[in-house]
Fold this protein.
Amino acid sequence: MAGGEGTSIPLLTPYKMGKFQLSHRVVLAPLERQRSFNNVPQPHAILYYSQRTTKGGFLISEATCVSDTALRHPHTPGIWTKEQVEAWKPIVDAVHAKGGVFFCQIWHVGRASTSDFQPNGQAPISSTDKPPKRMVSPSTGDITEFTPPRRLKTGEIPQIVNDFRIAARNAIEAGFDGVEIHGAHGFLLDQFMKDQINDRTDEYGGSLQNRCRFPLEVVEAVANEVGADKVGIRLSPFADYFSSGDSNPEALGLYMAESLNRYRILYCHMVEPRMLTVEEKCATPYSLLPMRRVFNGTFIAAGGYDREDGNRAIDTNYSDLVAYGRLFLANPDLPKRFELNAPLNKHNRATIYLPDPIIGYTDYPFLDFPTPDSET
Ligand SMILES: Cc1cc2nc3c(=O)[nH]c(=O)nc-3n(C[C@H](O)[C@H](O)[C@H](O)COP(=O)(O)O)c2cc1C
């Protein structure tokens, strides 16, 4: 196991996250892989997740849709049907068999969709009726024009809260140790929080408190359903992904961090201000430290981390855990590589979302560890 050979770098020190005894701090970030045909998790995910599992390691699943209106791609997994729940079970079992702690990231994309992916070709739902700006895919150059969304009526919001609640219950039934509510990256919850999107005039729009009402209702419902000790949330107050900017992201981040304390959830997972989108890094005077100081539970930082600044984040108590996306995607044995300070594989953009059970998925090479026999 990583960290088991004497001298330990900060990233490879143990950490107790609530009732979970983690053996190191290198977390698998949620990574959408688009290989769950018909929105049903596939057996090839067993190998993918177990490759990235270490005993006492913490893994967050790819974003998993809470309902049939939550989708934006053809092959993202869901967790609203019995078939999906059953299909997750062997994947979760495989992670548990290797001693990993596995949370399911539950997701609704809101307006970041098109009518092609919505039931009966209907408009996607959102806090607003304005679509995000057209998007050019960094990997394929494809242009997405978003369908203008339908603004949710005030009276419809409890139904969406309920979809998250049921998805959380289903995730626990599938065997997951807990859930991470996806409140980041310009998706539905973020569409309520951000003042550049939310143009509502009811109690879910206007003031910071009103804009955060819906995400906090989701947190409360999910925590009541499965237990706050099994709930985390991911937030990206500084990101502008899918035209999701806010005029005062630090105030938003602080307000959410403070409010989350009321529900005593397990962790808050925040994306670094330097990440403008999911992949682009930029210079910024901001940091996550004010939010880290305010939040009482476990704090996870993510976005653009390497071995060196991950170690620094732990060493300086900037964060309790660090989530790695692209590096963990390309290096299934990332904690081991960090331990040995070994060279890292680079991710291949072209194969990231290929709907293939192997290519760009489970074929990234492991380090070749010498066995005791081969050393003699
Ligand atoms: C292929 C890919 C898929 C991603 N899917 C998700 C996702 O499902 N949920 C999420 O919250 N973030 C997602 N992200 C963002 C990552 O979790 C992470 O925040 C981002 O890659 C920046 O971290 P990194 O620099 O360590 O890669 C994705 C990023 C990539 C590259």
Summary: Residues 29-32, 62-63, 105, 182, 184-185, 234, 271, 275, 278-279, 302-305, 324-327, 352 surround flavin mononucleotide (CB under 6 Å). The radius of gyration is 20 Å.
